[in-house]
Amino acid sequence: MASPQRVSFAGGDVWLVPEAFVEEALDLPRALAAVREAFLAHGRGEAVNVPRIRVEGRGRGEAWQHTLRAALGSPALVGGKDYTSVGFELGANWVSVCSRRTGRLLALIEAAHLSRTRTAAVVALATDLLASPAPKVLAHFGAGRISEGLVSGVLQVRPSIEEVRLVRRREEPPAWLGALPVRARLAKVEEALDGAEIVTTATSSRTPVIPPGTRMAGRHWNLAGANHPGRRELDGELAGECLPERGGFLVVEAREQAALEASEFLGLAMEGMLEWSRVPTLGEVLGGVAPVPASATHTVFKSVGVGLADMAAAAVVLQALGVEP
């Protein structure tokens, strides 16, 4: 199926939207504008984000199912994303969208491209809000399919960047690295971090990829890889550096979900060193409720991936279809 099809299902007409259409309808600028509005509404209490539910396979090699849900105020949509995984490999990935006015199912949207693009847009938004205005060097950890989007998103909101340093396990560079509009190269960890004003991570590592003792101050950090207690990209000591009393300004997408999934910080919360109620959200920063304090020496965005962003991206796809909620 190369183009959307309208079928009779669940008591009404429902659009089945394939990946090819989503790739045409949803680019980074449209996704960035949509997630900006969604998080601003969330900060005002006009949008709802529900933390992820995981149905875990009991046996080795069995699939897990993951569910994210959210509701937008404008457009009036409710629904979310479901996806499956076996180990680190993703299986099916789709978004279901319903009208908040009528309760009718509007569309089922394939969501591989949607997921990557909304993640890149959210990281770009956080970078735009929190990073210094004219950085020169970006260090990125990770080389999966999502990494190309994250790097492109950061470059879009910070065109001053002149060099991208990529840290990955394999020695050969991915094809997209050479296509970037700036100087880009592979680098070892210490070399990549040397002088980098923005550091972005998108790994599935079970152990920290940022070395203990790394200087946190003077940088903006996007931590976008770990959203499960079994994974982490910072150790406990560096996570502590993200707290206000250590000069950090930590921001999350949604407090309730971060409290369950922001693995690097769960230990600090259990020890009473971090109170989630005091951690600002992207929407609160956007709305001016939680501006970056003058005392902050470094900013940290911890992303776990939320249904709110999926719904914002899905709204762009529905608009391209001409569907009104």
Order of helices and strands, N to C? EEHHEEEEEHEHEEHEEHEHHHEH
C-alpha Rg (nearest Å): 19 Å
Count of discrete alpha- or pi-helical segments spanning 4 or more residues: 10
**Overall pLDDT metric:** 95
Strand content: 25-35%
As laid out across the biggest beta sheet, the strand order is: 1-2-7-6-5-4-3
Largest sheet: 7 strands, mixed
What is the β-strand count? 14
Cα distance spanning the termini? 24 Å
Poorly predicted segments: none
Briefly note the structural class of the backbone. Answer: alpha/beta
The rough form would be described as: globular
User: Roughly what percent helix?
Assistant: 25-40%
Explain the layout of strands and helices.
Layout: E1 5-9, E2 12-17, H1 19-25, H2 28-43, E3 48-55, E4 64-71, E5 77-86, E6 89-99, E7 105-110, H3 112-130, E8 137-141, H4 145-157, E9 163-167, E10 183-186, H5 189-193, E11 198-201, E12 220-223, H6 236-240, E13 248-252, H7 255-261, H8 263-270, H9 282-286, E14 298-302, H10 307-321
Parallel strand pairs: 2-7, 8-9, 8-11, 9-10, 11-12, 12-14, 13-14
Antiparallel strand pairs: 1-2, 3-4, 4-5, 5-6, 6-7
